[in-house]
Design brief:
The complex is a heterodimer. In chain A, about 40% of the residues lie in helices and about 30% in strands. Chain A contains three helices and five strands; from the N terminus they run ααβββββα. In chain A, a hairpin with a 6-residue loop joins strand 3 and strand 4. The model of chain A has no long low-confidence stretch (mean pLDDT about 95). The longest helix of chain B is centred in the N-terminal third of the chain and has 20 residues. The model of chain B has no long low-confidence stretch (mean pLDDT about 95). The chains are: A alpha+beta, B alpha+beta.
């Protein structure tokens, strides 16, 4: 399911015009994005939480050529699945 | 401060022009649609943000690191999040 399908499904589920549903979906993910850019945590009960993890730089190797390369330090969002979603997705 | 569901509901109320209770209903419903999709095994792709992917993990032999006891871990179904390149670049 992509964003436009999500917008469509939401619009039907809550009887909201498509354009409004689109604003809602964009605002929700926009808020999450802004929080993560600021380095803040996102905590949605039942769905999960995101936090930005910092990774140190290290010397890596191109596995194809064996060439040594510097991997620069980076920050990546890390998603931890919430309890409810975890249990619902898992088999039985 | 972490971004929570309550803050997202407030932000929908401020940005989209729905009542407080409508904002709540719409946000709860959006999260429920996402959870249902993942529960049914369908991935969710939010362009510019990332994707939530349902992964099948096969059973494997594991070990309790505290007791070093061998144990069999059953097959599982889990959700993983992959950050979009666009968001990753914005965070770094």
């Amino acid at each position: 399911m992509n964003k436009s399908k999500l917008i469509e499904n939401l619009s039907q589920a809550v009887d909201l015009p498509l354009r409004k549903a689109e604003e809602v979906v964009n605002a929700v993910f926009g808020d999450m994005e802004k929080a993560l850019i600021k380095g803040e945590r996102v905590e949605i009960r039942g769905l999960g939480s995101f936090k930005v993890k910092k990774y140190d730089g290290y010397k890596g190797r191109n596995p194809k050529t064996g060439e040594v390369i510097d991997v620069t330090p980076k920050q990546l969002p890390f998603f931890k699945v919430g309890k409810e979603l975890k249990e619902r997705v898992d088999i039985n | 401060m972490a971004l929570t569901k309550e803050k997202i509901i407030d932000s929908i109320y401020d940005q989209v022009g729905l009542s407080k209770s409508q904002s709540r209903t719409v946000v709860e419903r959006l999260l429920e649609i996402m959870k249902q999709s993942l529960e049914s095994g369908e991935d969710i792709l939010i362009s510019g943000f990332g994707k939530f992917v349902v992964k099948e993990k096969s059973a494997r032999r594991g070990r309790n690191p505290q007791t070093t006891e061998d144990l069999q871990l059953r097959a599982r179904r889990v959700v993983v999040f992959k950050t979009s390149g666009v968001l990753r670049d914005k965070i770094n």
